[in-house]
Specification:
With 848 residues, the protein is of the alpha+beta class. The protein contains 28 helices and 28 strands.
Length: 848
């Protein structure tokens, strides 16, 4: 990544110097289907930029990452590419008041999911292209000023191979010469421009509201068309547009609305106006649970929210990334709950999204929601649990604090005042102060400009008759924040744990007395943050914790139950509850969990409890308990239900004995049956995976499965399983493919890493800990930032969970103080996870 960074200071200087009137981008993608490797390596990109000098100075630079530049012309003056182009920037001198720059370059197709990604479908040999730019990879496709505050209108023209269709942000049509020309966009930032091209399967529909009509499109690879449920995608899309038009009072501003599900995508999705891109894993090839459909709906609505929060109104620089991502993450759950069939989406938010936020907010790299983003590498790493999930949690707190009506009215005014412009934190706060009457700057200082998560614990005293004499909420944390929160009292009645009293209050300082609950009968459970209004770690008094150990499954309200699961998991991660105790609660009550998304999260936590947080000497016993519990619940689950499918996957992931493996083999070859369990192709891969990990499925057997599923998805599964086999030679080959070579695509790098790292193979991969620390700085310098992140995170030797690995990590950090800050951040985060695991293991060992 040498020379490809851009600092905030440089961006500010350039924004002060110039403004951009417009781009014309001409791409020739016919080389995408060339016969030779060289032919498909690059494509021609010609960019014309019209811009004005609005500040002092006559020099600047334009961004471009390309193998070569053929010509550069500034105001009719030819510049020597060998002199002005350094591989990532083109230097421009002698600027006039009005300027026209033309850059003719050869840009490279990508295999890392950055820039113009090229994919060949192994099923039918078809080639597919799409672009992905955030935060700064448009410069891999055309020359530009790559920063969000230099917005401009764009006109794209694309010459594509015969038989292809091309899409971009604006409406397009093909002329007689086979060139696709697209309508000029509204002023937008570089990172949300896009091109999608290839023989995609394309389905159309339309959304109508009064005089407004929005053409809708949805697409995927031809080989996935048989699985594509476009009708459900359009249903959620229309429900989302209804909600946003009802509440934002600003019609969708970008014309058409296409949604492309594309292969080997690094992200969940990207909010390119008029042409949203999604990872194609949201097209389900087999039976999945409603939680999967809810997750897809959430992403669809998240990206749609960006049409207003992010695309119409954009942050000036990546410091205020939350102005788009936090809002979109919040709106995804908000709209799902109020406008779609997924009315319990706040349960998923409390249990799933917040778990991501709590972890991120306790890492050494935690940061305020409004972060200090020095450069593009900082920006890339800040697409994290703080910016997304904590930011969304804080916005939920804001709605409770300021009121729903004030929040929505503030949004409406924000769009109208800043349409097609760029904003900072103060721009939004001033409007919310108008609509709510609250002091938003004090609120923002506590919630947006500080880091860390508070813990809220109830402290209760009773009189002789068992009535509450005082219930206080004790707040811990470096920054004591104002919380608008509810406290619920629950008691056992008829075998159910139900709420009988609730009070909502402003919680401030170290101790807040909830006077409205004085005099209530003694509860079995006190639940702080009932209804999940604020962002905090929930703690329990001793009586409440004992109640949960014995009766968690008796809680009737699904949100309250989800909050309790999440709180127990936080206690486990913090080394305050032994991992084996969490496993015991999960095995006792997970079978009674009705919310499938919560159940899947509990499964993930329970496996992590055994793998990471249990004392090493108890791991084998803990793993056996998980497999036994999983099989027990699988056999009693309703035949054909999503719970049965979820327990089948859990059992496969925890299988460890000959009897377990024999059952999996029987389910695969048809000699064993479980009533109602449909062993489709995706489930087949899940059942085969532990057989490969434990040496019961060799290369030939994995190849047989690929023959049944010779698709892009099947290939990824095959690569993962091949790397997961318990062999030193296998591990050496996988390491070489990822670390010593750059021939694998981003998706196959990810699959290989997933196969390489197996908890049951700790001893086998132990020799790679030293190799990891020897390789990562070189790898970071040589690879794209996306691949660098995948490798540094994925191959960190966290499974070598001992003090020696911690010491080796500290030694690397001490010896590499001048390493790239983003690289050091990744290593520091991994170190923190390891140290946390060691603390939790010490806690668990005391419970033996």
């Amino acid at each position: 990544m040498p020379g490809e960074n851009l600092s905030r200071d440089e961006a500010q200087e350039r924004a002060a110097l110039l403004s951009v009137d417009g781009y014309e981008v001409v791409l020739d993608l016919r080389s995408a289907v060339g016969d030779s490797a060289e032919a498909v390596r690059t494509f021609r990109s010609e960019t014309t930029i019209r811009f004005r000098r609005t500040g002092d100075g006559t020099s600047t630079f334009v961004d471009l990452i390309a193998p070569s530049v053929d010509a550069v012309t500034l105001n009719g003056r030819s510049l020597d590419p060998a002199v002005v182009f350094d591989g990532s920037r083109i230097a421009l001198d002698g600027l006039a008041d009005e300027n026209t720059l033309v850059v003719d370059a050869r840009c490279a197709y990508s295999r890392t999911g950055e820039g113009m990604h090229r994919f060949v479908d192994p099923e039918d040999g078809e080639v597919y292209l799409y672009t992905q730019y955030e935060p700064a990879d448009a410069r891999r496709v055309y020359a530009n000023f790559e920063q969000p505050d230099l917005k401009a209108p764009y006109r794209f023209s694309v010459t594509a191979p015969e038989g292809w269709t091309v899409w971009s942000n604006g409406a397009g049509q093909q002329d007689a010469e086979g060139v696709w020309r697209f309508a000029e966009t509204a002023p937008i930032s570089t990172y949300i421009t896009c091109v999608v091209a290839g023989p995609y399967h394309y389905v159309t529909d339309s959304y109508t509201r009064g005089e407004l009509e929005i053409p809708l499109g949805a697409m995927c690879r031809k080989s996935l068309a048989k699985h594509f449920d476009a009708d459900d995608v359009f249903l959620i899309t229309k429900q989302g547009f209804d909600f946003f038009h009802d509440n934002f009072d600003y019609p969708y501003p970008f014309g058409k609305y296409d949604q492309a599900f594309v292969p080997e995508y690094n992200l969940g999705a990207m909010e390119n106006p008029g042409m949203v891109t999604f990872r194609e894993e949201y097209i389900y090839r087999g039976k999945v649970t409603q939680a999967a459909y809810e997750a897809r709906a959430n992403v669809i609505l998240h990206e749609m929210a960006h049409m207003w929060f992010g695309d119409l109104v954009t942050m000036v620089w990546w410091d205020d990334l939350w102005l788009k991502e936090s809002f979109a993450d919040f709106m995804g759950s908000f709209v799902n709950a109020e406008a779609t069939r997924f009315t319990n989406s706040w349960v998923t938010f409390a249990n799933n999204r917040k778990s991501w936020a709590y972890r991120a907010d306790q890492l050494p790299s935690t940061h305020p929601i409004t972060a200090d983003i020095r450069d593009l590498e900082d920006a890339k790493l800040n697409f994290d649990g703080i910016t997304y999930a904590k930011g969304a949690s804080v916005l939920k707190q804001l709605v409770a604090y300021a009121g729903r009506d004030a929040f929505l009215e503030g949004s409406r005014r924000y769009f109208k005042r800043h349409a097609y412009g760029n904003t900072r934190l103060a721009d939004l706060l001033s409007i919310l102060e108008e609509t709510s009457g609250r002091d938003m700057r004090t609120w923002a200082k506590s919630w947006l400009q500080t880091s860390g998560v508070n813990a809220l614990t109830p402290a209760v005293t009773y009189d002789a008759e068992g009535r509450i004499t005082e219930l206080a909420v004790v707040q811990e944390g470096d920054e004591l924040r104002p919380h608008r929160a509810a406290v619920g009292l629950y008691r056992l009645s008829g075998g159910e744990l139900v709420r009988y009293a609730r009070a909502e209050a402003d919680i401030t300082g170290t101790r807040t007395v909830i006077t409205d609950l004085t005099g209530q009968d003694k509860p079995d459970l006190v639940l702080v943050n009932d209804d999940d209004l604020t962002y905090c770690k929930v703690r329990f008094d001793e009586r409440s914790l004992a109640t949960l150990r014995a009766h968690l499954g008796d809680i009737t309200d699904p949100l309250a139950r989800a909050l309790c699961w999440s709180a127990l998991w936080n206690l486990t991660r913090d080394g305050l509850m032994p991992a084996r105790d969490f496993v015991a609660v999960a095995l006792a009550f997970a079978g009674r969990e009705t919310d499938i998304g919560v159940l899947q999260m509990v499964h993930a936590w329970t496996k992590s409890a055994v793998t990471l947080y249990a004392a090493p000497e108890w791991r084998e016993r803990g793993g056996r308990l998980l497999a036994e519990g999983g099989l027990r619940e699988l056999r009693v689950a309703e035949p054909g239900s999503e719970h049965q499918l979820t327990w089948a996957r859990f059992f496969a992931a925890t299988a460890s004995t000959d009897a377990d493996f024999q059952l999996l083999e029987g389910l695969l070859d048809g000699t064993a049956k479980i009533d109602g369990l449909d062993v489709d192709q995706e489930l087949r891969w899940a059942l085969l995976s532990p057989l490969a990990v434990h040496g019961r499925a060799d290369e030939a057997r994995i190849g047989e499965e690929l023959a049944l599923d010779d698709t892009a998805t099947g290939k990824r599964h095959q690569v993962r399983l091949l790397a997961s086999r318990p062999s030193a030679a296998v591990k050496a080959q996988a390491w070489a493919q990822v670390v010593e070579s750059d021939t694998l695509s981003n998706a196959l790098v990810e699959a290989t890493i997933a196969g390489f790292v197996q908890p049951s193979q700790r001893e086998l991969i132990a020799p790679y800990a030293e190799k990891y620390f020897a390789a990562i700085e070189r790898l970071w310098a040589e690879r794209s930032i996306q691949i660098g992140m995948d490798v540094v995170r994925g191959l960190f030797p966290g499974l070598q969970d001992d003090e020696a690995t911690l010491t080796a990590t500290d030694a690397w950090l001490s010896a590499h103080e001048s390493a790239a800050p983003a690289l050091r951040r990744l290593v520091l985060e991994a170190r923190d996870d390891l140290a946390r695991a060691l603390r939790a293991q010490a806690c668990d060992r005391l419970a033996a």
